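Journal club side-thread
Mid-discussion, someone asked how the predicted structure for our own chain would compare to the paper's figures. Pasting it here so we can look after the session.
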Amino acid sequence: MSVAVAVIGCGQFGSVVASHCARAGHSVHLWGRNDEEVQGLLRNRRSTRVEGLVIPDSVVITTDAQAAMSGARIVITAIPSQYARNVWTVLRAACPRDATVVSLAKGFEVQSLKRPSEVLRELGVGGVVVTLSGPSVASEVALGLPTAMVVAGEAVAAREVQHAMATSAWRVYLSSDQVGVEAAGALKNVIALAAGMVDGMQLGINAKATLLARGTAEMARLGMALGGSRETFFGVAGVGDLATTCFSTDGRNRTLGERLGRGEDFASALRSMHAVVEGVDTCRAVVELARRLGVEVPIASAVHAVLFGGETPQHALQELMRRTSGEERL
């Protein structure tokens, strides 16, 4: 059944999701706040951020938020975590009060340490807020290659989104663990920075596999302390999304980490990235959350030391390797 969908944010994944929804037969509006970028998309329907993506002609692309969300049954927000509060403070009046709001953001807000869905609820955006997450390399989704996603939150709204988003290319699972799904989505970006450093230092597959295994355990420890379920971190939204982010050459977090591992300066490398690297700010929030909750996050702490403490990736690795080994545990 066709529904009216508004996608807020015309960056990488916003444009991809809008195209996916159009191919699924829905009426889609795609909103962007940058008039130059929107005009570029209108000219040739091609995203400069996602190779191979051609936005279907049926997608209405606009800078008018009222027009984009008027009558929308599902509003999908693809605004990065650190910008969501400012953007939605301006746009919330345009969002229908009965719309199901779908958050795609993967991170914690640095100032408040809140999850994306918590920020949206605090602002009173739309109706029920659910979270959509999972392995979703934009270039692969743009080509219609298969993947699996998880929609988490209140059961009726989550099922509505599941039915709307599921296609022959997307297998969409339901989860009641919104806390865990959002925590996994945030934490995997920090681990991906570390995975990139491993690649940049050319430490090999064994080191990277070890990092992913212990990174998953670290994600689960902190996520469970926040109230998430252990099973979530070993499923599609957890280890599935983590593996994608740590191995994909398109991954912004992994790419930045690789450049740091090769010896590039953090500040200059970050400035030259052409899109938001969510793991950077998320790393600040993760280390602070872990401190408050009394949870050990050695990998995230090592990444934090490299990003903000002037540590080299090589020395951070040495410190990790010096940690006492005991029985493997979460």
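Post-session note: The chain has two domains: 4-176, 186-321.
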